[in-house]
Amino acid sequence: MELDCKSLILQNREDKDDFLLGLSVSKKVGKATKRNLIKRRVRSLCRSHLQILTNYAMVFVAKNGIIEISYKVLEQDFLTCLKGLFSSSPSTYRSKN
Q: Do the Cβ atoms of 25 and 32 come closer than 8 Å?
């Protein structure tokens, strides 16, 4: 399944093991320091919401302009993507409020 959000494209498949993460950040996004910042942010988001990501393998593709948005906005977009992903089985997704 593939979901297209404001700042990320999310592709996933169910996996029998733990959570697997793939990151793709193009050179179009920025130089190495900016690309690494984006990867650190996405890894941090995945760590924060690991309980809802177990048993999945996901690939995040960063879009142009992602470097300009704040961490909080990125997190909201990330959670929106996950809600869309789990909309077929709403009991799987539980928000951390």
A: no
**Overall domain count for the chain:** 1
Global pTM value: 0.74
Tokens standing for residue 81 = 């993507």
What DSSP designation does 57 have?
E
Taking a C-beta distance cutoff of 8 angstroms, is the pair 41, 63 a contact? no
- CA separation for the pair 39, 25 (Å, rounded): 8
Cβ 3 vs Cβ 9: under 8 Å: yes
Residue 49 lies in a domain: yes
14 lies in which domain range?
2-88
For 71-81, the pLDDT digits (tens) are: 999 898 888 87
